[in-house]
Design brief:
Elements (H helix, E strand, L loop, with lengths): L1 H5 L12 H7 L12 H19 L4 H12 L1 H7 L11 E6 L3 E12 L4 E7 L5 H12 L6
Antiparallel strand pairs: 1-2, 2-3
């Protein structure tokens, strides 16, 4: 279901393994999210990276990613300069899936603090249109509908 919802991320290597890095370097990374959430997510990714850099230090992989983005992305530089930290994902996310359309999903974040990894768990309220769409997605998987 994760691949059906958010795509296969196993193809990425190097810095592109980071969803936050892809947010700033690959315009397709934004396609899955409702446009009205883009500004918030930009701030969230930059603030999250800043928090990890602060925790892990200037020799960390996080600092390396920040340096890459600072050197190559104006949008990242602009939000990085705001010095925000602590912005967390919203409880409800609005997706625009290419096969089933708009989805409103509750997001729970499971954190591994030792590795600075998060596992996002998405659910829909039973009986809602989003719930029905997730059921369809569970059947079609990654197939493209004609």
């Amino acid at each position: 279901m994760g691949v059906a919802l958010t795509g296969d991320t196993t193809q990425y290597t190097g810095p592109a393994r980071s969803s936050g890095y892809r947010w700033f370097t690959d315009p397709r990374a934004r396609d899955l999210y409702a446009p009205e959430q883009h500004a918030f997510m930009t701030r969230m990714y930059a603030a999250g990276l800043r928090g990890i850099v602060t925790l892990r230090g200037p020799a960390s992989r996080a600092a390396y990613l920040a340096d890459l983005l600072l050197d190559s992305n104006e949008e990242f530089r602009r939000v990085w300069d705001d010095h925000e930290i602590g912005i967390r994902p919203r409880e409800v996310k609005h997706f625009v899936h290419p096969e089933v359309g708009a989805l409103e999903l509750t997001c729970q974040r499971l954190i591994d603090p030792d590795q600075a990894h998060s596992l996002m768990v998405y659910t829909a309220v039973p009986g809602t249109e989003s719930y029905e769409k997730l059921q369809v997605l569970s059947v079609i998987g990654v197939q493209r509908l004609p």
